[in-house]
Amino acid sequence: MRGWMGKTKVFFVFTLLALFLAGCGIENLTALEPKGYGAEKSMDLIILTTLIMTGVFVVVMVIYVITLVRFRRKKGQEDYVPKQVEGNHKLEVIWTVIPIILVLVIAVPTVLATFDLADDSKADELINVNVKGNQYWWHFEYAGEEIQTSQDLYIPTGERVYLHMLSSDVIHSFWVPSISGKMDVNAENVNTMYIEAYDEGVYWGKCAELCGPSHSLMDFKVIAVSPEEYDEWVNDMQNVDADAEPENAVAQEGQELFEANNCMNCHATDSAASGIEAGPQNNGPFGPNLTNFGDRSRVAGILEHNKENLVDWIMDPESIKPGNKMTGQYPDLSQDEAESIAEYLLQLQPSEITPESAGD
C-alpha cells in the first residue's frame, strides 16, 4: 500500500512540475507562436504530425481496451482458446497500407515545405546577407550595402531576406524559432535560407548545433522594423563616422585605450570595414563588429546591456563565455581602464532605429 501511495505522489509531483515548466519561456523565442513565414510553415507541419500521432494513439488505445475487456480470461473459461487471426490477409494489408498512407501524408507536405523554404530563385531581387557563424557569436554582412554588424540582424517586416551562411570554425545552426526554421552553418559550403517577419519586434535566435562549451550562450537577435525604418537604419549605418570624437573625456580615454590595447586588431567600429567573403578561404573578422554596439540589447549576446556587465565582460570574458576567442588576446586592464573602454563602446550609437524602437 505504501509503495503504491509513494508512486502516486511522485507521479503527481512530476505532473505538476511538467505543467509549471510548460508555462515557462521567453517571448519571441518559441516555435509555437509563429510570427514569420518559415515558422508558420513549421507550425503547420507540427499540427499535422501531432494530429496524426494523436489519432494513431487513440485508435490503438481503443483497440487495446476493447481487446482487454472483451477477451479477458473469464471464470470457468480457463482453457478457452479464442479464434486465431494469424495469417489473416485482410488484417495484414490493413496494418501495412494504413501506416504507408500516414507516412505519405506527413512526408509530402514536409518535402514541399523544405523545397519552398530553400528556394533562392528570387534572391537577386531582394535583400541578401552573408552570415558568418563563430564561436560564440554571429557576424552579418549586407551584400551590396557596405554594411557589417554583429549579433543584431536588422530586417524589414513583410519582406524576404536571404541568408547565405558559412562557419569560420565548427558546425553551427542558425535558428530564430518565432520566424524561421533551422539551417546548418558549415565551414565547407554555403547554405542558403530566407527569413521573413510579419510584425515588428525583437526575435531571439539560437545556435541549435552543439559547438563547444558556450554553445548554449551563442544567442543573437533579429530586429524586425518597418521598411521605412529599415531604410533609415541602412542610411545611418552607411554614414557612420568611425573617427568621430566621443562626447566626454572618459569615453575619449576609452577610445585611446581601445586602440592602444590591440582591440582594433579584432574589432571594427566602422560598418564598412573588414569585408567578409562567403567561402572557407576567408574566415572573416576575428571579433564582432562594434559599429552600433551602444544600440544593442545585450552584452556578449546574453547579459543585460549596461556598463557594469560590459566591464565584467572586458575584465574576464572567460568567466562569462568559457572557450571564447577573446580571452587572452589583450593586456590585463585595470578596473578604471575597463570602465573607460566601456564608456566609449556604449556611445557607439549611430542610429535611432534600435531594438527598443522595435519593441524590445
UniProtKB/TrEMBL annotation:
One GO biological process from the UniProt record?
ATP synthesis coupled electron transport
Q: What is the main EC category here?
A: translocase
Q: Which residues form the Cytochrome oxidase subunit II transmembrane region profile domain?
A: 23-121
Task: Quote the EC number.
Answer: 7.1.1.9
Chief location of this protein within or outside the cell: membrane
**Membrane-traversing stretches:** 45-71, 92-115
Q: Determine the domain of life of the protein's source.
A: Bacteria
Query: Sorted alphabetically, which InterPro entries does this protein's record hold?
Result: CcO_II, CcO_II-like_C, Copper_CuA, Cupredoxin, CuRO_CcO_Caa3_II, Cyt_c-like_dom, Cyt_c-like_dom_sf, Cyt_c_oxidase_su2
One GO MF annotation is: heme binding
Q: Which reaction does it catalyse?
A: 4 Fe(II)-[cytochrome c] + O2 + 8 H(+)(in) = 4 Fe(III)-[cytochrome c] + 2 H2O + 4 H(+)(out)
PANTHER family attached to this UniProt entry: CYTOCHROME C OXIDASE SUBUNIT 2, CYTOCHROME C OXIDASE, SUBUNIT II
Q: What does this protein do?
A: Subunits I and II form the functional core of the enzyme complex. Electrons originating in cytochrome c are transferred via heme a and Cu(A) to the binuclear center formed by heme a3 and Cu(B).
* UniProt name for this protein: Cytochrome c oxidase subunit 2
Organism equals Oceanobacillus sojae
User: Quick one: which gene encodes this?
Assistant: ctaC
